[in-house]
Amino acid sequence: MTRNPTQVVIVVTTSRKEAENDSELKEFFECRETAESLRNTKRIESISAEDVAAVVLIGGHGCLIDFPNCEGLHKLCSNVWYRSEGVLGAIAQGSVGLAYMKNDRGEPFLKNKKITCMSNEEEKSFKEELPFYVEEKMEQLGVKVENQQAFKPNVIVDSQRLITAQNPQSSRQFADKLHQTIRQYAEKV
Q: Where are the domains of the chain?
């Protein structure tokens, strides 16, 4: 049987406070089509890595609460990376979802990898109480973080299939690089 992974799993989480204070985000969640899509959302644990070409972790302060203890997410990302040889992408705070993944030897997935994530400077500018700053947490975990100037686009590709972006200003470049990498992946399978 030939595998042909075609799904791209996009993981989005948000804090209630973000949704209440961001008019665009509020409008997004109040949209009828969005509400319908969210009603039909699959649980992470029900997704088979064999069907997945890529997992994309979208940032937001909800990631700081939801991603660290989401073993289903860590397992899906690990299986997509190691078993399916798929693509992983993370933007801004979404990178924290990669921090708790393990390789087959039980070592941190991000060991010896270069990534970028929301910088301490960027996080502090929001003047919100957060459980932790992503850049600081990554450094505590021994991850090599390569951030650039605050609020400027920065996208890093490591191992040809790991794409990370520093902040929302990186969205266009991140999406372009993800699209290009997923297309290359699809041509190989």
A: 7-188
Q: CB neighbours of 188 closer than 8 A, spacing ≥ 6?
A: none
Q: Confirm or reject CATH 3.40.50.880 for domain 7-188, answering yes or no.
A: yes
Whole-angstrom distance, CA of residue 172 vs CA of residue 154: 10
Residues with Cβ within 8 Å of residue 123, at least 6 apart in sequence:
130, 133, 134, 135
Report the distance separating Cα 61 and Cα 40, nearest Å: 23
The rounded average pLDDT for each run of 10 residues, N- to C-terminus, in the chain (189 residues) is: 70 69 74 77 88 93 92 95 94 95 89 95 91 94 94 96 97 96 84
Q: Which residue has the tokens 């299986």?
A: 79
pTM exceeds 0.85 = yes
- Alpha carbon distance 101, 72 (integer Å): 10
CA atoms within 13 A of residue 89's CA, in its CB half-sphere: 28
* Cβ pair 57, 101 in contact under 8 A: no
